[in-house]
Design goal:
By secondary structure, the protein is of the alpha+beta class. The protein is built from three helices and 24 strands.
Length: about 425
C-alpha cells in the first residue's frame, strides 16, 4: 500500500501542471472567440471627400495683362479710333481693371464636372505703341479706357483631377505628377500662405508647364492642402509667332456654395469605393463641407446675418453609416441638441441655431456596447465556453481523485 500511495503522490505534481495548461488553453480559446466576433466591428478609413461639390464656387480678384503685335487697322476694326497709317505695326497692351471672375460647378457626374465661368463687369485699358522699322517701340498712338465692360459667361467640361475651381486633395502628394489638357503638372512643394480669406493656410504648390514650337505656357497654383481649393495662381504664356504674351495673377477673395431656393445641395462622398449622396437643406450660406472618414464625421461651416434664425437639415444615407452607429452634433465644438428622423434609406438630422459664423460637426458614434447584438452574442459564447470548460475540468479532477486500480490475481496485491 505504501508503494501505491507513493506512486499516487508522484503523479499529483505533474497533474497541477496539466491543469495550468488546460486553463491556458481555455483563456486562449476565449480570446480567439472575442477576436472573431469583434474584429468586423470597425469603421473604414483612409479615404477623403472630393472638392467637387455641386454649387461650389470660387471668386477671384485678377490682374490681367495681354501684350501682342497687331496693326493700326486691326485695332480700328474692333472699335478703337487710333491715329496713324492703317498698315503700321503696333504693340497693343490690354489690361483688365477691377476684374473679378467666378468659377462654379453647375453639373456633376464624377469624375466629369461641368464648370461655369462668369466674368464680372470690369474696366478695360487699351494702349497702343508704334513698332518702328528697326523693331524698337516708338511713340504711343493712343490710350483708351472703357468702363463697365459686360460680363461674359463660358462653360466647359473638366476631368479629374482638375475641377476648374480646385484640385482633388488626393492628388496633392508631394512629387505627384499628372497631365491635364496636355499640360504636365507636378506637386512642387509645400508653402504657407498668409493673409488668405481663412487667415494662414498650408498649401501644396502645383507647377504646370507646356512648351512646343508655337506656344509656351506656365501655370503656378497654390492649393489649400485639405480642400484642394486654389487660393492663388499665376499664368504666363508666350506665342513666339505673334510676339504675344499674357500674364495673369489671381487671388481668392470668396468661396462658398450657392443654393437654389427650396432645392437641397448634393455632396458626392466617396466611401468604401462607391459614391454616397449627402443632401443639405439650409437657409444659411454654406462655405465648407468635409467628410472626415478617419473620424467618421461630417464638418460644415455656415454663416448668415446676425440675429436671424438658422436651420440646417442634413440627409445622411444609411450606406454611409454602420448599422450600430448613433449620432452626436457639435456647434462650434460644444455639444448641440438636434432632432433626428429616419426612413428605410436615410437619416435626417435637423439642427437650429442663431446666425453668425458657425462650424457644425455631425459625428457617427458606435451605440453603447450593451445595445449591440454582437456584444450579447460574444457574452453568450464566452459564457457557454466558460461553463463547458468548468464542467470539463471538474470531470478531469474527479477522474484523477478516483483512479482505476488493477487487481493482480496472481499475487493478490493491489497494482495501479
Amino acid at each position: 500500500m505504501e508503494k501505491y500511495i507513493t506512486r499516487i503522490n508522484g503523479i499529483c505534481s505533474p497533474g497541477d501542471s496539466k491543469m495550468k495548461h488546460e486553463w491556458a488553453s481555455i483563456i486562449l480559446f476565449l480570446l480567439i472567440v472575442s477576436i472573431v466576433f469583434v474584429s468586423p466591428i470597425q469603421f473604414a478609413s483612409g479615404e477623403t471627400s472630393s472638392i467637387a461639390v455641386l454649387g461650389r464656387y470660387t471668386l477671384y480678384d485678377s490682374n490681367f495683362t495681354m501684350v501682342f503685335n497687331w496693326t493700326v487697322k486691326g485695332l480700328r476694326d474692333i472699335g478703337f479710333d487710333i491715329s496713324g497709317d492703317a498698315s503700321w505695326p503696333i504693340s497693343v497692351n490690354y489690361t483688365f481693371l477691377c476684374y473679378t471672375y467666378k468659377y462654379k460647378i453647375v453639373q456633376l457626374s464624377l469624375p466629369e464636372v461641368m464648370i461655369q465661368l462668369t466674368e464680372g463687369k470690369h474696366d478695360w485699358n487699351v494702349t497702343a505703341f508704334r513698332i518702328m522699322d528697326n523693331g524698337t517701340i516708338g511713340e504711343r498712338l493712343g490710350s483708351f479706357l472703357r468702363h463697365d465692360q459686360p460680363a461674359r459667361v463660358k462653360f466647359w467640361e473638366s476631368q479629374h483631377p482638375a475641377f476648374g475651381i480646385g484640385f482633388d486633395p488626393d492628388v496633392l502628394a508631394l512629387g505627384n505628377s499628372f497631365v491635364i489638357d496636355g499640360v504636365t503638372y507636378t506637386v512642387n512643394r509645400t508653402e504657407t500662405l498668409k493673409d488668405t480669406i481663412w487667415g494662414e493656410n498650408e498649401t501644396r504648390v502645383l507647377h504646370g508647364y507646356q512648351n512646343n514650337e508655337t506656344y509656351i505656357y506656365e501655370h503656378w497654383a497654390w492649393c489649400d492642402a485639405k480642400s484642394g481649393i486654389i487660393l492663388k495662381q499665376t499664368f504666363s504664356s508666350e506665342n513666339p509667332a505673334t510676339f504675344g504674351t499674357v500674364h495673369e495673377e489671381h487671388r481668392l477673395i470668396e468661396t462658398g456654395i450657392e443654393l437654389k431656393e427650396s432645392e437641397p445641395l448634393r455632396f458626392d462622398v466617396k466611401y468604401r469605393d462607391r459614391i454616397h449622396w449627402v443632401f443639405i437643406n439650409t437657409n444659411s450660406t454654406l462655405s465648407n463641407f468635409i467628410f472626415d472618414v478617419s473620424r467618421s464625421m461630417i464638418n460644415l461651416t455656415v454663416y448668415g446675418s446676425e440675429n436671424t434664425h438658422g436651420i440646417c437639415n442634413v440627409t445622411i444615407p444609411k450606406t454611409l453609416v454602420t448599422s450600430e452607429s448613433g449620432f452626436e452634433v457639435y456647434l462650434d465644438g460644444q455639444r448641440k441638441n438636434y432632432t433626428i428622423a429616419e426612413d428605410a434609406s436615410n437619416y435626417y438630422v435637423w439642427i437650429e441655431y442663431q446666425h453668425s459664423s458657425h462650424t457644425i460637426a455631425i459625428a457617427f458614434l458606435p451605440s453603447a456596447l450593451w445595445l449591440q447584438w454582437w456584444f450579447w452574442l460574444i457574452v453568450i459564447c464566452i459564457s457557454l465556453a466558460a461553463v463547458g470548460a468548468t464542467l470539463l475540468l471538474k470531470r478531469r479532477q474527479a477522474q484523477k481523485s478516483h483512479p482505476k486500480i488493477k487487481i493482480n490475481n496472481n499475487t493478490n496485491r493491489f497494482s495501479p
